[in-house]
Amino acid sequence: MGNAELPAGAEYARRVPVPPARPFLDTFKANLKETFFPDDPLRQFRHQPAPRKLVLGLKYFFPILDWAPTYTFSFFKSDLIAGITIASLAIPQGISYAKLANLPPILGLYSSFVPPLVYAMMGSSRDLAVGTVAVASLLISSMLSKEISPTQQPSLYLHVAFTATFFAGLFEAALGFLRLGFIVDFLSHATIVGFMAGAATVVSLQQLKGMLGLQHFTTATDLISVMKSVFSQVHQWRWETAVLGCCFLFFLLLTRFFSKRNPRFFWVSAAAPLTSVILGSLLVYLTHAENHGVQVIGHLKKGLNPLSATSLTFEPSYLMVALKTGIITGIIALAEGIAVGRSFAMFKNYHIDGNKEMIAFGTMNIVGSLTSCYLTTGPFSRSAVNYNAGCKTAMSNVVMALAVMITLLFLTPLFYYTPLVVLSAIIISAMLGLIDYEAAMHLWHVDKVDFCVCLGAYLGVVFGSVEIGLVIAVSISILRVLLFIARPRTTALGRIPNSMAYRRVDQYSMAQSVPGVLILHIDAPVYFANAGYLRERISRWIDEETKSSKGEEMDLHYLILDLGAVGSIDTSGISMIEEVKKIIERIDIKLVLANPGSEVMKKLDSSNVLEAIGHEWIFLTVADAVAACNFALHKCKPNDSSCEDAV
Prior knowledge:
The protein contains 27 helices and six strands. The protein is mostly helical. It folds into two domains: 73-482, no CATH class; 487-646, STAS domain (Transcription Regulator spoIIAA), CATH 3.30.750.24. A six-stranded mixed sheet has the order 2-1-3-4-5-6.
């Protein structure tokens, strides 16, 4: 019965064509283009004269040439307000994050001057505010401090930090030029949520040194080491520093709460860090608190960024640590910057090119490493302030850079009395905003595996290190992808009454199985990694189908494999189909294929499996396949009403 031939000319026996053969080189080029150039960036250059191509090329790498000619005074007014607002946040944060990275505080201001100017010319985001970030600062500190002491070898530590920034920029730009941005996609949303929360927790714990006025502190970042360092020095805690720090932390959190409740007063929380620095400096100056255990920043030299090209070190003994630090911090900076840029672009309904952003980030960090800057990207807190302040273009970064330039030229002596505890309070208040527990709870409700990825990243960072947390999160994410490929779902399909639609019987209770026919849907491409599993799973489906719940034998004559989700197949997958065909033919069951894609048809044809199955047993849809099987089972005429009921 199962091997019955279909009558020639049956209406439902529509042929699935084999795609026409194409030269190997053309196919290879097409696949390469689809993989690395899905957005086809060269399409705008086609059919253009040479001068026009040059102009388009310059606009591609320097978007400022695209929007600057249409820039208006009303745009400038908005960008001026936004730039001054983010400058008030960037100055204290820059100093704070440089201290977090164990670098001279002035580098935080240097890094808020040159990189924003580069990004304003090359970046495609209108809302991203460029500057230093806490997570990258912590990474630099934790990774470099293992090899070089920032206190005993400050000059060498500084040179290796510049070199790591140079490698980070080189790596970011290379990813953009080679169109390898998909590497950053391995940092999933769940990974970033957990990683950022863990890093924020660790950064906050590190600030206990400043909040308690401790002189010596552990260089480790894990929770146990930090707590041990804190409680082993109880006798050295300074109550004056602790009280001052708690007061300023309360002030910063209060302003944030107020701004969240009243969005039109966003500038209150944006100006709070600079206000804290001014108030803290005045308090120390008037009370001489520096003589009573309150540590201050001290002297900051005036002047713009000195060149640091000669400070890069490529000595073999420090080259690997600089390279490793640069690549890891570069990936984290890219993930944060691109994610933030895309988020705000979505709010304003415009598009940013991820690969162009990588080139912009890479260039600004390469230039930054040559002008006494360390790693920069687009931090969320500063970009959110920029967005809320009503910025229109990247000119707000230029305004911010000019404000920082004025500070470097004239105002740095005013920071002499700034207490370090205020900087610690600023960092803690900024970090608490990165612990997104609501997003973690959402992951738990939606996808338990994603929640495990998030939790793994968080625990790895808090109890291990930033690198360990990152490795754990990425490993769990990759393992999930591998499990999906190695163990794809196979589900039985049934017909929805009064329709020709076939859906999963475990999802649709009304779906009806077809007597004598087993319809299986394969949910993923078929590769060597899952071919054996699919063969065993299909065999088990057949065994279960041929026996009823009472143990009685059931008639099964056709196995229909729905290949609609099988986008590609390799030689192991082809061999699996051949083996399934041989196995089921021994028990008088016919193999039928439905909805195979072009890639599958080409492989079936070139391997002669198509001839073995029979082209007449390959159908466009599951409905066509079921109709053909029912026709062969009932041996009915096309106009037989009983056959129509069966179909």
